[in-house]
Specification:
Layout (H helix, E strand, L loop, with lengths): L6 E2 L3 H6 L7 E5 L5 E5 L5 E7 L9 E7 L5 H16 L4 H11 L3 H9 L7 H12 L15 H16 L8 H21 L12 H4 L17 H17 L3 H16 L3 H5 L6 E2 L4 E4 L8 E4 L2 H8 L24 H11 L5 H15 L4 H7 L7 H5 L10 H30 L1
Parallel strand pairs: 1-2
Antiparallel strand pairs: 2-3, 3-4, 4-5, 6-7, 7-8
Helix pairs in contact: 4-5, 4-7, 6-7, 9-10, 9-17, 10-12, 10-14, 14-17
């Protein structure tokens, strides 16, 4: 040791003899001013360097070099010299380190930060974003997000389109490709807002995705639905299948599809409906967190009320349409929709039932569009609806809901009579 406490030429022998005290202590090198070693009360030794950045009116910067053992004394002294040289040139090593860390931020890290924001995303949106990063962009997820280029985006987009054209729906389609790159664009924009380079510029922009503007396939709006002259046959068939249903999941699937036609709900909203959201006495159900984030109470037609009254309730299962599956409720009545498609004469998805409901309301029942929009909880940007009109309690639309349900029954009656007439003709 030297006569001056905690100041000496730092060597291996000197550092090995340092003993911990009751608090952090610093030992400074006499060869390189600002270079030192810190020892904690537990005996941990860490090399540091301290200096002032030239032309910057800020307190002295103290930078951690690394632990003794990871660095030798001589290695740490060389690093300290580099840091001090940078400071004399006006460069803050802390900002350089931060910029280097930012430059290494991966797509997966951006995704994790984006989806973990409290209250910002619905579970379905979060699931879709994570799925695309995990599948569509699997080869990129661990790469620095700033390394994603226009050419990479164009190549991946075209790969998805090619696979889609080959019929590989799981690997690609115009719709999936567009959705995937919308997700990527949102993640890049978020990264640009949250992460900055050393010069203050955004880490990245939507640029690589925006470059797809001329490549993107313009998808026609989907209009598929059960055609008017087939609705009665479908509604009739659903009633007949329900009478013949022999297990819980089959009953749940049929009642769920009937409920979709009676309400025009989205499949995710209807399938996850719980009994505590339903009030059969007053004839309504409540959606606390629908897709458009507009909590709403919706009317039930008498047909829907009667259907729900006879639905079995499963002890320990809160769902109106329960299932033995992992989710606890029917999620995708795929097999039943194949049967519905056969009766309808065209492929029908659960969302097509929502379009069918809308067309019944507008075309067959002559319900004005604003009321139809309310019934489907599909409000467009409207100052009156958003700021002046109560759209949270729609029980006053019960007559409209009843009109649609009655029309379905009328069409089923017509379909049944046509079936009888046809059978008689065939028998003759």
């Amino acid at each position: 040791m030297t006569n001056q406490p905690n100041r000496a030429k730092l060597t291996k022998g000197y550092v090995d003899r340092i003993k911990p005290g009751p608090k952090d202590e610093f030992h400074w090198d006499t060869e390189v001013k600002g270079f030192g070693v810190r020892i904690t009360p537990t005996g941990k030794l860490t090399f540091i360097v301290q200096g002032r950045v030239e032309a910057v009116s800020a307190p002295a910067a103290r930078i951690t070099i690394g632990a003794y053992g990871v660095f030798t004394v001589d290695q740490a002294r060389d690093v300290a010299r580099e840091h001090l040289r940078s400071m004399r040139l006006g460069v803050d090593p802390r900002q350089v380190k931060k910029a280097e860390e930012v430059a290494r931020v991966s797509l997966q890290q951006v995704c994790d930060a984006y989806v973990s924001r409290p209250g910002k995303l619905k579970a379905s949106s979060r699931e879709a974003i994570e799925r695309h990063v995990r599948t569509t962009f699997d080869a990129w997820k661990d790469k620095p997000v700033a390394s994603i280029t226009e050419e990479m985006c164009k190549k991946r987009y075209r790969e998805m389109l090619t696979k889609g054209l080959r019929g590989d729906r799981k690997q690609g389609s115009p719709g999936q490709a567009n959705q995937a790159f919308s997700v990527l664009g949102a993640l890049l924009a978020y990264a640009g807002r949250q992460y900055r380079r050393a010069d203050g510029s955004p880490l990245c922009t939507r640029g690589p995705v925006d470059a797809l503007k001329d490549d993107r396939v313009r998808l026609k709006p989907r209009t598929s639905r059960i055609l008017d002259h087939k609705v009665g046959a479908v509604w009739l068939a659903l009633g007949q299948w329900r009478a013949e249903a022999y297990n819980r999941d089959t009953m749940s699937s049929i009642d769920l599809v009937r409920f979709l036609l009676l309400t025009g709900l989205r499949i995710s909203e209807a399938s996850s409906l719980t009994w505590d959201q339903v009030n059969l006495e007053d004839g309504y159900f409540h959606l606390p967190n629908p897709k458009n984030s507009n909590p709403v109470s919706m009317p039930l037609a008498t047909q829907a009320i009667e259907m729900l009254k006879v639905r079995p309730r499963v002890e320990g299962n809160p769902y109106v349409f329960p299932s033995w599956g992992k989710a606890g409720h029917i999620k995708d009545p795929r097999d039943l929709m194949k049967k519905v498609s056969g009766v309808a004469g065209t492929p029908i998805s659960p969302h097509d039932l929502r379009r069918t409901f809308t067309n019944i309301a507008l075309r067959s029942c002559r319900i004005e569009k604003f009321r139809t929009d309310l019934l489907t909880n599909h409000l467009t940007r409207d100052v009156t609806a958003e700021h002046y009109f109560d759209t949270t309690n729609l029980q006053w639309l019960a007559p409209e809901a009843q009109k649609i349900a009655d029309w379905l029954d009328q069409q089923a009656t017509i379909a049944a009579s046509e079936n009888v007439t046809r059978l008689r003709a065939e028998a003759a």
